[in-house]
Amino acid sequence: MQKQCCLHALRRPFLTGLALSLLVMILPFAALDEAPESPSSAPSAPALSSRPLAMASPVPAPTPAAPAPTLQPAPVLPAKNVDSKATVRVLLKDGVTVETLSLADYLWRVVAAEMPATFAPEALRAQAVCARTYVAARKRTGVHSAKGADVCAGSGCCTAYLDPKDAEQRWGAYTEAYSAIIREAVSDTDGIILTWEGDPIQAVFFSSAAGSTEDAETVWGYAIPYLVHVESPEGDEVPGYHSTVSLTPQEVQARALRAGLGADLSGPPSAWFQGLTRTAGGQVSALTLGGIALSGNAARNLFSLRSASFTVSWDGSAFVFSVTGYGHGVGMSQYGANALAEQGYSWQDIVFHYYTGVSLGTYPL
Asked: What is the pLDDT of residues 90-137, one digit of tens each?
């Protein structure tokens, strides 16, 4: 009951009005533009614990423990053999070869690529549900139908993808144990997807947030009712959570020139960056460079930053960008999902938290 009270205060009314038909035309944004980094460079032994039951301001500091929303009524239970019966046609990285896999085998490859096997089981289950939902949505849009595929194996378009042979090289002695953990995360959520008004949602995700996720509208320019900002509890336990990028005035000028910005950088460097504003989720929404307006995401790409949650300062010889988090910031934060799972929240809690107002459904055969 205490979780529910806390969560009720965090939930904000979800946006309304956008017809889901617009989703067919959205950018081919990746579900995750950066997969989470493993907590250590070397694999650690898997924790075989008992499985939990489904039960112009500085960058904001992450909330220590952001609760998740309450479970919706009439939960959907895992189906039987939906994933093993359904098939997915995958366009491999060569851009030519199409491999047909069972949905179960495809999801194993995605979850193995997108989330460390050492993450909490409930976080891995949440990732499996998101990946299954993403396939369902991609199949409906037919993005890769011209090449006879449903999805591709590129994280820049669909999701990351890890071949079992590559997984064995990555995991070494822990391959069998890690493989079993991921298979379990997939099978424990067999056939379950996330829906909005009966259709599969765009279940986008990213690595880590700076205290809050972002509204789709502030990042991509159009509103999606279930992709609105919510608090996210990860912090300094995330590898590379805080990062810096230093650029000399000459480097900034060169990047602005290559981008064709037409910025006036003739004055003192200390005055080049002005008017920084932030979104409700804490990312930079806009700033000006030499009088030219840039969105936070445009600045992120221009200066190769890990996220749009940053500050910029002039130290007398270089511009220092101080960055928090990693990824576009929309949808489920993977490290946030792991933090919630470690606090005892179920995969249902996690997905209902990050995707506002969605329901559970079953993957169509």
From this structure: 999 999 999 999 999 999 999 999 999 999 999 999 999 999 999 999
Instruction: Answer for the pair 23, 193: CB distance below 8 angstroms, yes or no.
Output: no
Calculated CA dihedral for residues 135, 137, 142, 143, nearest 10 degrees? -80
**Eight-class DSSP state of 49:** P
The structure tokens 């533009």 sit at 33
Asked whether the beta carbons of 34 and 206 are under 8 A apart, the reply is yes
* pTM for the full predicted model: 0.81
Backbone angles phi, psi at 264, to 5 degrees: -90, 100
Extended beta strands in 218-330, E state: 242-247, 273-278, 284-289, 292-295, 310-314, 319-324
Contacts by 320-324 with C-beta closer than 8 Å and gap 24+? 320/244, 320/245, 320/246, 321/244, 321/245, 321/246, 321/247, 322/59, 322/242, 322/243, 322/244, 323/59, 323/242, 323/243, 323/244, 323/245, 324/59, 324/62, 324/210, 324/211, 324/241, 324/242
The Cα-based distances of 148 to 97, 138, 159, 177, 365 in angstroms read 10, 13, 18, 34, 18
- Closest C-alpha to 206, from 214, 218, 194, 196: 214
